[in-house]
Write a structure and sequence with these properties.
Elements lengths: L6 H22 L1 H29 L6 H55 L8 H14 L1 H38 L1 H11 L5 H39 L5 H10 L6 H17 L4 H27 L6 H43 L1 H4 L1
Helix pairs in contact: 2-3, 2-5, 3-5, 3-9, 7-8, 7-10, 7-11, 8-9, 9-10, 10-11
């Protein structure tokens, strides 16, 4: 005969079911929550600046929180605008020059590869005329299929672009209100925690906050070191656009692959435009290859991993695991999420070691 549940057990089961349903609802609404999650992450990073200005309001300067939020957001978006102003002029300068250099580059490539391809029984011209003929042949052979694929891609791509535009417009609005009511929101979250667990929960939240702060400081230091490294390396190699390209590569390194890839493409374009032979390409390969080794095996594990208490092997595993599970966003959030999980695992381990199951 089953034992009757007490009132407390019934309440516990009920609220566990409610929280599980809430979590399932969040999973189902994942795409809708993307701008809210992005805004919450930015709000967490920018809130110390707002708090600093807000504390001045308590003193003699008189900066209310709403004005502090506006000032911090203006500085943040001004920094993003400065990065754009660094990238766009470089692209405007290099892309037209690259377009003019493409025929000569294809001729060099054809002179280098055509004889070897001919020895293998492959007849192909890699100059502009040969590529045009090859594309015309492919288009003539499957025009209907290609047109259908292009239309389908345009439809999907158009929907994705509209979604990105809506997200980009929505994030600043959400960010403003999150920063404005940040402490009130945290108080509401803390108020929803059962009172028996409130002290333990606040202690864990404090540890997570300290780890994430150390992560941000370590990541900023990695960005600074790499910006100096890439700029110096490109200057020594004689690149005219060494400073902007090096700064872009270093500052965007917090976005895995994208920052490095953009800097690498800009450096390769500059090498094709500025240097007549293969010297520029070899220099770019050496500089960026060494930069990847420096970042992946020394800077990130040492300056970021050690600050949040993660072993270098754990850092590499976290990047691979979160990338496999959640794609690009997972790679972006791998280390801070690992810091949070590490705090939870530490408390779980302590509870396990103190349990009767372990000590019996």
């Amino acid at each position: 005969m089953p034992f009757p549940l007490s009132v407390e057990q019934k309440q516990t089961a009920f609220w566990i079911a409610v929280w599980l349903a809430f979590v399932l609802l969040l999973v189902a609404l994942g795409p809708v929550l993307t701008p809210f999650i992005a805004a919450a992450i930015l709000a967490y990073a920018l809130n110390p600046g707002v708090d600093y200005l807000d504390r001045l309001h308590m003193g003699r300067f008189g900066v209310p929180r709403a004005l502090a939020v506006v000032l911090v957001l203006l500085l943040f978006f001004a920094a993003i605008g400065a990065l754009i102003l660094i990238v766009v002029p470089v692209l405007q300068k290099e892309l037209p020059l690259l377009q003019a250099q493409i025929p000569a580059f294809l001729e060099k490539l054809n002179a280098l590869l055509a004889p070897r391809l001919h020895e293998m029984g492959i007849t192909a011209q890699l100059d502009g005329e040969g590529i045009r003929k090859l594309l015309s042949k492919q288009l003539a052979g499957g025009g209907d299929e290609i047109l259908a694929a292009v239309l389908a891609s345009a439809k999907v791509g158009g929907t994705a672009v509209l979604g990105w535009i809506a997200t980009v417009v929505l994030i600043p609005v959400l960010l403003f209100y999150l920063l404005l009511d940040w402490h009130a929101l945290l108080a509401r979250v803390a108020g929803a925690v059962p009172r028996r667990y409130i002290d333990r929960t606040l202690a864990m939240a404090g540890e997570v906050d300290e780890l994430l702060a150390q992560y941000l400081r370590g990541q900023l230091l990695v960005m600074l070191v790499l910006a100096v490294y890439y700029s110096s390396g490109l200057i020594i190699a004689g690149f005219d656009v060494a400073l902007p390209v090096g700064i872009i590569t270093g500052l965007l390194v917090f976005i895995p692959y994208l920052g490095f890839g953009l800097g690498l493409v800009l450096a390769l374009i500059a090498s094709v435009l500025q240097f007549p032979g293969w010297n520029g390409l070899v220099a770019v390969a050496i500089i960026y290859g060494c930069g990847q080794v420096l970042e992946g095996f020394f800077l990130t594990p040492r300056l970021v991993g050690e600050r949040i208490g993660l072993n270098p092997l754990a850092v590499i595993f976290a990047l691979l695991a979160f990338g496999q599970l959640f794609g690009f966003v997972g790679v972006l959030l791998a280390l801070p999420a690992s810091a949070v999980l590490m705090v939870a695992f530490k408390h779980l381990r302590r509870h396990y070691l103190d349990s009767s199951f372990y000590n019996a």
